[in-house]
Design goal:
single chain, alpha+beta, 205 residues, six-stranded mixed β-sheet
Length: 205
């Protein structure tokens, strides 16, 4: 990731700056950060989107998986683009910025947010966990296919892990899934998907 400017911006200034069709950026405490996902990251993300969309169609759920969106943090100088976001379409009527700018400001609009870990693993395990919890997003996955996260997050010895954070009484409770474990999700309780299947989607060299 690359910090593109030293000037601290508000979220509104960031949206005015954002270049259409030229890369992917987030705003972290007023600083514009360019996201540079690699091929493995994109293969895992694509696989998960496909599997989740199949589940949405199978159950005829009123959810959408948009390709362009922002989640505005409770902080006025931060906005995120999760790698995957599942939105509750009926709830979007209460989102004041959705129709104009596809911006989410309320956790109740989100069924699931997913971050596939890159070199910025501290953001996924620390910053975004805290902000998504404050926003009230009910479920958040950290998909760490390369075991980049710190030992206090994924254990020792480190191994590829999917961490599922679920909101309980306003606080995230985390469950760790590895290898052949089936991912247990409140958002998709019937989802039949293992960690091994997710990480097996990466093209071998």
């Amino acid at each position: 990731m690359i910090q593109t400017t030293a000037k601290l911006l508000t979220f509104e200034e960031f949206l005015e700056w954002y270049p259409d069709g030229k890369g992917r950026f987030e705003l972290r405490n007023g600083v514009i950060v360019e996201m540079n996902p690699n091929g493995d990251h994109e293969e895992v993300t694509s696989f998960l989107i496909r599997k989740i969309n199949v589940e949405i169609d199978r159950l005829n759920l009123p959810y959408i998986t948009p390709s362009t969106y922002f989640v505005r943090s409770p902080a006025a100088t931060t906005g995120f683009q999760p790698d995957i976001i599942i939105l509750d379409k009926p709830a979007l009527i209460s989102e004041p910025l959705w129709k104009k700018s596809s911006i989410i400001t309320q956790g109740d609009s989100v069924k699931l947010a997913v971050e596939v870990v890159s070199t910025n693993w501290q953001d996924d395990y620390l910053v975004k966990v805290a902000d998504y919890e404050r926003l009230g997003i009910p479920e958040y996955w950290v998909v760490d296919y390369a075991a980049l996260g710190g030992k206090r997050f994924i254990g020792n010895p480190k191994q590829p892990t999917i961490s599922v954070y679920q909101l309980v009484d306003g606080e995230y409770q985390v469950s760790l899934f590895r290898e052949g474990d089936r991912i247990l999700s409140s958002a998709f309780p019937e989802l039949n998907l293992t960690v091994e299947q997710v990480f097996g989607s990466i093209q071998s060299e």
